[in-house]
Amino acid sequence: MITEEQYINGLGRLLLKKSGLTIDCIEKIFSLKISKDKTNIINKKFDTYILDNKRKNTGSFYTPDYIASYMVSKALFEYFKNNTSLSDERLTSIFYNGKYNLKNNEFQVFLKILKNITIADLSCGGGIFLINYMRLVEKILIINNCDNYMSYLKAISKNVHAYDINKQAINALLLELNIHFEPENEEEIIYFNTHNLDIITSASFDETVPQNGYSIVIGNPPYLGEKGNKNLFNEIKKSAFGNQYYEGKMDLFYYFIYRGINVLNDSGVLVYLTTNYFITADGAKNLRKYLKDNGSFIEIINFNEYKVFKDALGQHNLIFTYEKSKNKNTRITNIEENKKVHSFDELVKFVGNCNNKYSIQEKFLFNERNTIQLYINENHFSIIKKIKTKSTHTLKDFFNVNQGLVSGADRVSKQNYNKKLSQEIIDLYKINIGDSIYVMNKKKSDKFLGKNYLKYFYKNSDINKFSVNENTNKRILYIDSQVELDQVLKNHLIPYKEILEDRREVQTGSRNWYELQWPRIKEIFEKEKIVVPQRSSSNIFAYNDKAFYGSADIYYITSKNLLMDYPLIALLGLLNSKLFYFYLSNIGKKKGNMLELYATPLKHLLIKKLKNEKTIINISRDLINKFNDKSFDQLNQLIYDDYNISQEEENFIENFYNHMH
Ligand SMILES: C[S@@+](CC[C@H](N)C(=O)[O-])C[C@H]1O[C@@H](n2cnc3c(N)ncnc32)[C@H](O)[C@@H]1O
Questions:
Q1: Phi and psi for 581 in degrees, rounded to 5?
Q2: Cβ atoms of 657 and 465 closer than 8 Å
Q3: In angstroms, rounded to a whole number, what is the distance separating the alpha carbons of residues 633 and 628?
Q4: Which atom of ligand 1 is nearest to the CA of 125?
């Protein structure tokens, strides 16, 4: 047995001292006899668990206390809303404004419900959520002068389930819990149902879940992308559950969402703190479909730049509340301020005072590809709703969208020079870093003059609104499978053969060593088209009907058929309009204020046949010839008219446009 003295070095001791617990009690809590060695192990692990700097590598960020208690109030608010007749106002005053003194009949309702709530945190860590839950329950019991509140607390704690893969976390939780409740004797020690297991792969998980599932699932699961953690996901995939819900490029926390919803009962509430990328990420396609099919988001609080975790740089988070009932509206709060908040009350005020709030029906929350659309605020949403309702087609109904070419070796890069070229070849051909392979300036291209594979080559900065800059000093050797390897070409490329042969497509035999890695279809560069820079600060779409070869950071929109049921130039006018800037800014991916216009979002843009098509085409032609403000204003006016945009909405869009430009 160890003495109290032996406990003095280290964190465990501090807690022991603070709690006033006897070692006996602690032994009970840890359900093991603490020998000297074991104590050290517990202390050390406990210590590293709580203070571990490596936690970033495991995707574990521990929730600040005020956020956890806010989420607990949120879960109880929704649960009581679903399961009692108390009004929203009444529940707000109880759960958010701390007015816990209840009328007698209310208190009886509370007792009955609280005794039956089953609550789980599937990644409890030190137990911040569950401890906050118990603290809140305790407050309610004490303020309402509940006789024998300790026995109620004990009864309620029997329905609390704490899961974690890490045993030390669970130990820490039990200790922390009892430090709070200061049991005076063994009888008063509070236990939860603790489950030390991997909630994704464990075959015994189902046995731990109460028959009716959980009333509340709450937590902050670990965030860990598949990228860089391939082995972990390979292991997970070996389990039935892991395999069932696996999708490429996913995040570990998606499994916690699936599990959480699986175990939630029909009137239950799930509240999670996660990163906010899953609402649009490609690797969360199945997850979003599952979320759409199995219930409703009740609320999403998007924190944007507000830092929930001080030490998670560059991370963006949200809190979402989800229920199994279908077709419920979602309340959205879009936090735009990055004010410092330190307490529950401050957070309630901060979120409450945020002006960017609106409620949205499910059919508008999920857009065409089931990505979840969070608009800036009510005004934005109502205009987008109008654009969507007026639209009759998606862009891909009439047009193809293709990405520009990838040569796989524009020039000799430093990496290729060091890793792929042999010294012998470098010396023989006097190769330097930066030497042109497929891409070169005009002067260097002289030896290819007259060859039909020599093409003008453009950068995405050569694209302006409506028209392109046709003067370029750059050239590319456009070598696809149609081009024969003539002597000039051979002489030019041979020195770089080691680099060219190392490209994946050449290795797999789908390209000759001298061809471009991804030449795409030549036609898209040659024919009439709209070119789009992949990323830009505004909606920049340019018309071009000559050869315009460019790299993969340019997209090419071409008509699908010769009938031209939707004229390309009409589309050009629409895409360049202020209304479409507004639309593009509100949907799809954005990096800061930059629009990201990849092939998939472009293909899925909603469009309509324009009533004023002819005039729009004429004005757009003017703008292709020479951009001028007068014609641009006229164009915008016609587009507003086409979509029945009111004067008030127009002012809103114009202000937004001016503010962003
Ligand atoms: C982000 S931490 C959150 C801890 C706590 N909920 C909080 O917010 O402070 C994630 C926790 O999940 C646990 N965890 C990671 N993978 C797990 C798994 N497969 N099954 C159960 N728990 C897991 C970690 O041990 C860690 O304690």
A1: -60, -45
A2: no
A3: 9
A4: 27
